[in-house]
Structures are given as structure tokens and as C-alpha cells.
Design goal:
four-stranded antiparallel beta sheet, 203 residues, alpha+beta, 16% helix, 3 helices
């Protein structure tokens, strides 16, 4: 009798443990992923504050938290080589529009415009010839801030989510952990091939 009782109690404990695990783990399908390689650009599509593609179609100014009718002057702009079908001379103008402090995060807002004789559309990954992995450098505290990985919402416009044509500007955002409040300027690595942006002010 005692053996049967012990068995029943053990089985009940196992069922209870499994139930609690299921309730606390949640659904991982919508959780953020990382973009060390090909995974980040498909994972981090929208973020908090100004960076949320729920406000518009991915790749639009609205989705990146920008007002198309009142775009700010870019903090930095540079032309870099681009990969476009049938055009070895293709270039891409990369712009950093703003860095906005929102609580414990900083939202970066960017623009990418391809200049090419090609009329073939592609996604950002294709035009760059690889993944998009921006980061901030807090030189005051010697800290590097990558795009957030464990963020409640997606923290970066996906490099493979939306296709666009040469001549069209593809707007993006990325969410980083904010440096301490006394840090008002950072360096920004926007994309491979572009010079490091120094003295970028956080608004």
C-alpha cells in the first residue's frame, strides 16, 4: 500500500513539474534571435519606441521611426561598393540619421540607397553581399554595444525581409543597450566597408 502511495505521489510530482515548466517557458517562436551569421537579419525586425515595423511596411521610413516628410539631416553618410546583378560599378549610399535614447536602449535609424544601372530588386543582405551587423562603441567606458539579442521585441530590421530596387531608399533601425546617461556621444560601425562614425551624438 505504501509502495503504491509513493508511486502515485511521484507521478503527481512529475506532472506538476512539467505543468509549471510549460507555463513559465512561454512560446519561443516569437523570441529574439541573434545575427552573428544569417540568423539575426531574419530575427530582429521590430523594436521598442521609434523602431517598430508595426507602424509601417518593413523598409519604410515609418517602420524605422522616421517621418518621410521631415527627415533629419544625416549624422553621417558614405558611398560604399554594392553588389548588384550585372553591374560591377554599383554603389550604395549609407546614412545614419539618428541615435535616440529610449530608457535603457538606444535606437539607431539608417538609410540605404543603391546606385546602379541594374533594375533588379534585392534585399539588403544581397546588396551588401552579407549580413548587416551594426554596433556602437562607448569609448569613454571602453564598451562595445551590439544589437540586443534578448529583447522583448525584435530589435533590428531584417536584412532579408524586404526587397527594394536601386534608386529606392531602404530605411532600417537597430536597438542597442544604452551607455550610461553621462555618455552623450558614441562611435558607430554602421556596416562593413563604411568608415567608423565618430562623435555621433545621442539625442
Amino acid at each position: 500500500m505504501r509502495s503504491i502511495l509513493r508511486t502515485a505521489l511521484s507521478a503527481a510530482a512529475v506532472v506538476l513539474a512539467l505543468t509549471l515548466t510549460a507555463c513559465s517557458s512561454g512560446d519561443d517562436a516569437d523570441g529574439p534571435k541573434t545575427e552573428g551569421s544569417d540568423s539575426q537579419e531574419t530575427a530582429q525586425e521590430s523594436g521598442g519606441g521609434d523602431g517598430s515595423d508595426s507602424k509601417g511596411e518593413s523598409g519604410s521610413a515609418e517602420a524605422a521611426g522616421l517621418d518621410m516628410n521631415d527627415l533629419p539631416d544625416p549624422i553621417a553618410s558614405q558611398s560604399i561598393p554594392a553588389v548588384a546583378e550585372g553591374d560591377d560599378e554599383a554603389t550604395m549610399t549609407v546614412e545614419l540619421f539618428a541615435l535616440k535614447r529610449e530608457g535603457e536602449t538606444v535606437v539607431g535609424q539608417f538609410g540605404f540607397t543603391v546606385d546602379s544601372s541594374s533594375t533588379e530588386e534585392d534585399d539588403l543582405y544581397g546588396f551588401l553581399g552579407g549580413s548587416w551587423t551594426p554596433f556602437l562603441v562607448d569609448s569613454q567606458n571602453l564598451r562595445k554595444h551590439n544589437v540586443l539579442e534578448n529583447f522583448p521585441q525584435r530589435a533590428q530590421t531584417g536584412a532579408q525581409k524586404t526587397k527594394f530596387k536601386p534608386g529606392q531608399t531602404h530605411y532600417t533601425f537597430a536597438v542597442f543597450a544604452a551607455p550610461p546617461p553621462d555618455v552623450q556621444e558614441v562611435e558607430v560601425s554602421v556596416v562593413d566597408g563604411m568608415n567608423l562614425v565618430t562623435g555621433a551624438k545621442i539625442s
